């Protein structure tokens, strides 16, 4: 099945390839694998702790063209969104935007999973920081 | 012969992970001789169709059972274990390590170096995972019914094996499947 122009465009010029500092408190890292095909995707977000807006997003993947295109598009969509808005990104929107063929839908699922994992990682870091600042009330 | 017989029955082998691969080969060869088109040239269309179908299912049984990874995938599905789509979780440190190996591979490639060491390392890792899978199947086969957690555990190992395979395919420069 031929790939859409949008897939090829992201594949040839992937946006936001690279890494952010895993250890930074403002950075959430999602590392997920798609065992159906063996693809692995690392997606990172850098969140402004005051506004909750995602200021930067990066990805690295070893995977097929559709995995690269899905991740590239996902990082573009993430920038400028709040964490809550980012949680709403669905793989079906990626499928639609890129016109992914049915056998490549799992690549978009991988991207959605990575977004969720990155947000979860960011939120866990915030909880840890909050716990340190104000110790949890007993029984609360 | 039942049309829905499983691959183990098809080759007359006991349903377990550890099987003699030479025996798979022998049984395959013995059966394929029986269905060889040269012996059925003058047969009716219906008979020829039957022979073609039998050959196809025999080939499928053979390619599935002779390969440890495919055999494990198949056996897990027979046992009702989760598919790769149902149980996707993989160990984070493993995924990180795969990511790093991938980066290492790109660096070696860019520098025009040899990838043979990395390839041997990945093949070693793959063997370790498969050996682990073999011992897990052996444990399951020694008890009346497998526990769901044991099946999930095998699935995770097979997910890791597939990820290593994917990296090896990339390292060897085999064209992407899609």
From TrEMBL, chain A:
UniProt KW keywords: Iron, Iron-sulfur, Metal-binding
GO molecular function terms attached to this record: iron ion binding; iron-sulfur cluster binding
One Gene Ontology term from the biological process aspect of the record: iron-sulfur cluster assembly
InterPro entries given in the database record: ISCU, NIF_FeS_clus_asmbl_NifU_N
Domain of life: Bacteria
Pfam family, one: NifU_N
UniProt domain NIF system FeS cluster assembly NifU N-terminal: residue ranges: 3-126
Entry keyword Iron-sulfur: yes
Residue runs in coiled coils: none
Matching CDD domains: IscU_like (cd06664)
Function: A scaffold on which IscS assembles Fe-S clusters. It is likely that Fe-S cluster coordination is flexible as the role of this complex is to build and then hand off Fe-S clusters.
Name assigned to this protein: Iron-sulfur cluster assembly scaffold protein IscU
TrEMBL record, chain B:
The keyword Chaperone is assigned to this record: yes
One GO CC term on file: iron-sulfur cluster transfer complex
Keyword rRNA processing: no
Superkingdom, taxonomy of origin: Bacteria
Keywords for the protein's UniProt record, in alphabetical order: Chaperone
An example molecular function term from Gene Ontology annotations: ATPase activator activity
Domain J, residue spans: 6-78
CDD domains in UniProt: DnaJ (cd06257)
Any one GO biological process: [2Fe-2S] cluster assembly
Biological function: Co-chaperone involved in the maturation of iron-sulfur cluster-containing proteins. Seems to help targeting proteins to be folded toward HscA.
Family recorded in the similarity comment: Belongs to the HscB family.
Protein name according to UniProt: Fe-S protein assembly co-chaperone HscB
């Amino acid at each position: 099945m031929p790939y859409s122009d949008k897939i090829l465009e992201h594949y040839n010029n992937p946006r936001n390839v690279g890494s952010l500092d895993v250890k930074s408190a403002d950075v959430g890292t999602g590392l997920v694998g798609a065992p159906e095909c063996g693809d692995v995707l690392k997606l990172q977000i850098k969140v402004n702790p005051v506004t909750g807006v995602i200021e930067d997003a990066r990805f690295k993947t070893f995977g097929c063209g559709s995995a690269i295109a899905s991740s590239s598009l996902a990082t573009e969509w993430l920038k400028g969104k709040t964490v809550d808005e980012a949680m709403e990104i669905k793989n079906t929107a990626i499928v639609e935007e890129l016109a992914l063929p049915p056998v490549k839908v799992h690549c978009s699922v991988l991207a959605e999973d990575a977004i969720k994992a990155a947000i979860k990682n960011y939120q866990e870091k915030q909880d840890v920081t909050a716990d340190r600042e104000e110790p949890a009330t007993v029984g609360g | 012969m039942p049309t829905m017989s499983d691959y183990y029955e098809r080759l007359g082998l006991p349903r377990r992970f550890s099987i003699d691969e030479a025996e798979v080969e022998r049984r395959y060869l013995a059966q394929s001789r029986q269905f060889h088109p040269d012996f059925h040239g003058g047969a009716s269309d219906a008979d020829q169709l039957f022979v073609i179908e039998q050959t196809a299912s025999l080939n499928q049984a053979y390619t599935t059972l002779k390969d440890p990874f495919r055999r494990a995938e198949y056996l897990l599905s027979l046992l009702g274990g989760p598919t790769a789509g149902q149980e996707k979780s993989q160990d984070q440190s493993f995924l990180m390590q795969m990511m790093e190996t991938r980066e290492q591979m790109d660096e070696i490639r860019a520098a025009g170096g040899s990838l043979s060491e990395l390839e041997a390392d990945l093949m070693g890792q793959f063997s370790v995972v498969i050996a682990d899978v073999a011992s897990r199947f052996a444990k399951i086969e020694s008890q009346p019914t497998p526990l769901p957690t044991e099946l999930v555990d095998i699935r995770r190992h097979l997910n890791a094996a597939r990820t290593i395979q994917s990296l090896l395919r990339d390292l060897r420069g085999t064209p992407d499947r899609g």
